[in-house]
Specification:
The structure holds 2 protein chains of 2 kinds. Chain A is α+β, with helices and mostly antiparallel strands. Chain A is built from 30 helices and 21 strands. In chain B, helix 3 packs across helix 4 and helix 5 runs parallel beside helix 6. The radius of gyration of chain B is 17 Å and the shape is globular. Classes of the chains: A alpha+beta, B alpha/beta.
Chain lengths: 848, 225
């Protein structure tokens, strides 16, 4: 076998470097897509675990409140009473520093209990418990060395942080070395004495979790804790993940679909290359067979040579994938942490599983693509092989059968859609069958299309157009594979853009209907985070009311709450104020007709459509929510189409929420101006009134629309990086197909040149062929993309986020897809056209 | 510029060297030859004597390493690739040993090729192609494809193709080399007919061919014998 590999394979491959390069690159890019997603995935998960571990130190268990937020400090006394363990309360908050774009994670800790849990190595200053009177100097904060350097801060100096009562000055009591938890989030981590943090962030008597350390049996301690604390508390090891991360990871994993299509495209390209390599070597293979090489030996050597190329491509792909993962993660963590500051990816985690998986996947793909042509060639007798020219890879009769199987696959895809919502990911499965169906039906369709297009192409150029159409019709399978490869990449681009356009469009309509205010005063800076439990200080409503031109305002409390497997969003709103504001503009928003009395009385709530869909609930059903005062049932008064939160939203009257959840705070204040006032001036007035004492943010509806669109655009960026790679593979596919086509027609082109075809005419012929393939691929890609967005992907979105989206045609993307296809077609023809034009006429016509 | 009544082809001290691996092979060595209009010249010689090289130079498929080749008064070595192509397309009809037909085109389309390349539309070229095919005895095969024809028939299609642009010069490289005796004779007769109106040059091993031509040129080791 090594002899065959050395004399038969190596020399052949050396003679065809471009083809080998294209094949290896197509595997490499497919593998790169997979590897990048896998590495991003594992790195993010590992980083989250590291982040949690660093933040929770050596804690073996955590005590948190079930289905709600905040552990009463009283629970700590019950924990301590158990004995045989150490307990440390932790208040962990995300906040901002006025004037800085970065977030800051603040941990409120009890230093007397801290020593065994976390390493806080002080570089300058001292830990507060060393000097119990330190608090007399002011509200102390301990920061990392990086944070101090970034903000030009010194020990003993001070700065302001945003709190629910406005920006508050804090005093730097110590600076940590950048070790342990202090190195997380780029050093944007600060520590405060627990009491100070509770006071500044208005969480008196409450912490987020209590961490537990024991020398005894962890299981036994957990059991005792559960017994002592009752069902309102959860005792668990530090978590491996959380719902923000899960939600974001699901989207990351959905990108694997792009990798699948990319590898399918890779299969097509390799299939083409192997086929041509076999056809070109028929004489050699025939000779080898005639002089004693067995069928199996020759079959084996072809598989081996491509297996080696596949392995090389996979190794290259792994390298590209790791490089790609670095940039993916940068965009990615920004997106995750915009929702909540939960993960800090400072290094890539490349598991042996990822390396082995990537190498295996790429090599296997190559072998799968090589088996058919290798086997096909081996079925021919040595004598026939030596009479080169008698062999054809596949007869036209096979295309119709493949077309019928393709129709079957498309039918199956439709059937899966009928069985809607029956099992998870059915939408993705339906997309796969639809794509497979299109791929199988394509060769026959190409045959028909190229025949139908022949007169049209002849209009462009009588002979060149005819020869181009004729060549496409001669090899429908080869052309079809390229068409479908490009179509697949463009379909993903169109469908993802259509889904996002749909969400944007519906979100915009929803915001128009649901938000009746002229401006909203907010404790959250949307430039750094979308969700935070921060609250508007208590004096703000009165301050705003005093601004000239302000008519009235109402408060909104927005909190996340456990519900089933998901975290839902609760909007507690002063419904009477909201209703009044809506009526002023003749609308009702989410207050459905006749529901106001029941909302005000606390009998019921309004839920979002996606909440109803995800939890299989409808009007009249009841929803049970856990509150600090126990479980409470509310009737669902109706459901409303809205796009706040992909896991579902619930609207409740704020006084009802305040009483049940014991939470009087307000996250936003929605403000209505008096009729006829200068809106800009009033808004300016509000900003001026707030500025001296508060760090709050004022937005109007258009600002909120922009924030929502920028979040969606960020998601698209991730998708588009992947799609761009798939398009590059599609490009390689066309170059490969055309190169092979030129090589197979060397003699024909030589003859045409001999009888008077100019090199320009040869180039025109290749360009027409290339543009035709690209345009058909582009057109099909757009159709598949729109169909995919309309049915299977819409179903997938409905299953994941509960949004049923009608089809939106993203015209810009459609034109970009078509333009890209044409450009790809034109550029892809350059190399093959040069090759064709450079064919030596004499060599071509005298070879037989 | 040669006068219009000058020779169809003229070779002046032509030398052609091919690189073969690491060594150079002299295919033609100082050949001078003048072929007049309406001559039917048969070029013969053993393998490697330079016959085909001479034909390729005369057909503007190649240019000499030294010396001059004039085709219909045009110095080929002064032309770029496009001009050489246009010279071939308009002035020369080729007939090859292996026919070199395009398998996916039927015989009318094959015969029409050079005229189509010249910008002609198929509808206008078609009748002339069909006439030529009838003249070479293929009236019953007009809708056939190359693979459905015998070797002799394929060569007749190649001859029709060579004549489609009505070139003053027809060059044939071993036109009977791949044919049985009877078919070979048929082809030679057709070429002799053609030579009544234009210049025909054939390169061949076939001894019978000399009897059909008006002049026999013999080559040996790259020189005129």
């Amino acid at each position: 076998m090594s002899t065959l590999l050395r004399y038969f394979s190596a020399r052949y491959l050396r003679r065809h470097p471009v083809r080998v390069f294209l094949s290896v690159m197509s595997v490499a890019l497919g593998v790169a897509l997979f590897a990048s997603i896998d590495v991003s995935n594992t790195s993010t998960e590992a980083a989250f675990r590291r982040t949690v571990r660093a933040l929770s130190g050596s804690a073996q268990l955590q005590v948190v409140k079930s289905r709600s937020f905040g552990v009463e400090e009283a629970a700590l006394a019950r924990i301590d009473a158990l004995g045989g363990l150490q307990a440390a309360p932790v208040l962990q908050l995300g906040t901002t520093v006025p004037g800085s774009p970065d977030g800051l994670v603040v941990m409120g800790l009890d230093f007397a209990r801290e020593a065994s849990f976390r390493l806080w190595d002080v570089a300058e200053g001292e830990k507060p418990q060393v000097n119990p009177l330190a608090f007399l100097a002011g509200d102390l904060i301990l920061i990392s060395r990086t944070f101090a350097a970034k903000h030009g801060l010194k020990l003993g100096g001070g700065f302001k942080i945003d709190t629910p009562t406005g920006p508050r000055p804090v005093l730097i009591g110590a600076i940590f070395k950048d070790e342990g938890p202090a190195q997380l989030f780029g050093g944007n981590v600060a520590v405060m004495p627990l009491k100070t943090a509770q006071k500044l962030f208005r969480r008196p008597g409450s912490v987020d979790r209590v961490e537990i350390l024991t020398k005894g049996s962890v299981e036994e301690v957990a059991r005792q804790l559960r017994e002592a604390l009752g069902p309102d508390y959860t005792v668990r090891p530090p978590p491996e993940t959380n719902s923000f991360l899960d939600e974001a990871m699901a989207r990351l994993r959905a990108l694997l679909g792009v990798g699948v299509v990319a590898l399918l495209v890779g299969i097509f390209i390799i299939y083409n290359s192997v086929s041509i390599s076999v056809v070109e070597r028929l004489r050699e293979i025939g000779t080898l067979r005639a002089i004693g090489a067995t069928r199996r030996q020759v079959f084996g050597v072809i598989l081996l040579e491509w297996g080696i190329l596949g392995l090389i491509g996979s190794a290259g792909g792994l390298g590209i994938g790791i490089g790609l993962a670095k940039s993916l993660i940068r965009i990615w963590t920004k997106e995750v942490n915009q929702v909540a500051m939960v993960v800090d990816v400072s290094q890539l985690d490349i598991l042996p599983r990822t390396i082995a998986g990537a190498l295996f996947l790429g090599t296997l793909t190559t072998l799968v693509a090589a088996v058919y042509p290798a086997n096909e060639a081996m079925s021919i007798s040595p004598l026939d092989m030596m009479r080169q020219g008698l062999f054809k890879m596949r007869q036209a009769g096979g295309y119709f059968r493949s077309f019928l199987i393709g129709l079957g696959s498309l039918g199956l895809s439709l059937l899966l859609l009928l069985e809607s919502l029956r099992f998870p990911n059915v939408g993705l499965l339906a997309s796969f069958f639809a794509f497979l169906g299109a791929a199988l039906a394509m060769p026959q369709a190409t045959l028909w299309v190229s025949r139908a297009a022949s007169p049209l192409l002849r209009r462009f150029s009588e002979l060149c157009g005819f020869l181009a159409a004729d060549n496409i019709a001669k090899h429908p399978q080869r052309t079809a594979l390229t068409v479908i490869a490009l179509a697949g990449a463009l379909a993903m681009m169109v469908s993802s853009s259509s889904i996002v356009a749909g969400i944007k469009h519906r979100s915009s309509e929803w915001m128009e209907d649901a938000l009746p205010f002229d401006c909203t005063v907010n404790s959250i800076d949307y430039a750094s985070t979308l969700y935070a439990s921060a609250a508007v200080p208590e004096d703000v409503p009165a301050l705003i009311q005093s601004v000239e031109g302000v008519d009235f305002s109402y408060g909104v409390r927005a909190v996340l709450q456990d519900y089933g497997e998901r975290d839902i969003m609760i909007f507690a709103i002063n419904m009477d104020g909201y209703d009044r504001m809506q009526k002023l503009r003749g609308r009702s928003g989410f207050i459905l007709p006749g529901t106001l009395p029941d909302l005000l009385s606390g009998k019921g709530v309004i839920v979002s459509d996606n909440f109803a869909l995800l939890h299989h609930l409808k009007k009249g059903d009841s929803v049970e929510l856990s509150t600090p005062r126990g479980l409470r049932k509310f009737e669902i008064l109706g459901s409303y189409e809205e796009y706040t939160w992909p896991q579902g939203t619930l609207y409740i009257h704020r006084p009802v929420f305040e009483a049940a959840w014991n939470d009087p705070s307000v996250t936003y204040l929605d403000v209505k101006f008096k009729p006829g006032v200068d809106r800009k001036a009033v808004r300016r007035g509000i900003v001026d009134a707030l500025r001296p004492a508060h760090s709050l943010f004022v937005y109007d509806v258009d600002d909120l629309k922009r924030v929502s669109e920028s979040v969606l655009d960020n998601t698209l960026v991730l998708m588009n990086i992947q799609v761009a790679l798939a398009v590059v593979i599609g490009f390689f596919g066309i170059v490969n197909t055309l190169l092979i086509s030129v090589m197979q027609r060397t003699r024909e082109i030589g003859l045409l040149r001999a009888v008077g075809m100019t090199t320009q005419q040869v180039s025109a012929m290749i360009l027409i062929e290339s543009t035709f393939i690209a345009l058909v691929g582009g057109g099909l890609g757009i159709l598949l993309g729109l169909a995919g967005a309309r049915w299977p992907l819409a179903l997938h979105v409905a299953q994941v986020a509960g949004y049923w989206l009608p089809l939106y045609v993203p015209w810009t993307t459609v034109w970009v897809a078509l333009g890209s296809a044409m450009m790809i077609g034109a550029v892809a023809s350059i190399l093959p056209a040069r090759r064709a034009a450079a064919i030596e006429v004499l060599e071509a016509i005298t070879y037989e | 510029m040669e006068p219009p009544n000058g020779p169809a082809i003229e070779l002046r001290g032509v030398r052609k060297v091919h690189a073969q691996g690491r060594r150079d092979v002299v295919a033609l060595d100082g050949v001078s030859l003048r072929i007049e209009r309406r001559e039917f010249v048969t070029i013969m010689g053993p393998s490697g004597s330079g016959k085909s090289t001479l034909l390729h130079l005369a057909g503007a498929l190649d240019i000499p390493t030294a010396g001059e080749v004039l085709v219909e008064g045009t110095l080929t070595s002064s032309l770029d690739d496009t001009a050489l192509t246009l010279l071939r397309r308009r002035t020369i009809g080729f007939v090859f040993q292996f026919f070199n037909l395009v398998p996916s085109l039927n015989i009318v389309e094959n015969a029409s090729l050079p005229a189509l390349l010249n910008g002609g539309r198929f509808e206008t070229v078609r009748s002339r192609a069909e006439d030529l095919l009838r003249k070479v005895g293929l009236e019953a095969r007009l809708s056939h494809y190359p693979e459905e024809l015998s070797g002799g028939e394929m060569q007749r299609v190649a001859i029709a193709r060579a004549l489609i642009t009505d070139p003053p010069l027809v060059l044939a490289d071993e036109p009977t080399g791949n044919l049985d005796t009877a078919s070979g004779v048929e082809i030679l007769k057709i070429l002799r007919e053609i030579a009544r109106e234009r210049t025909v040059v054939i390169v061949t091993h076939d001894d019978r061919a000399a009897g059909y031509g008006t002049r026999l040129v013999k080559l040996r080791d790259g020189k005129l014998a």
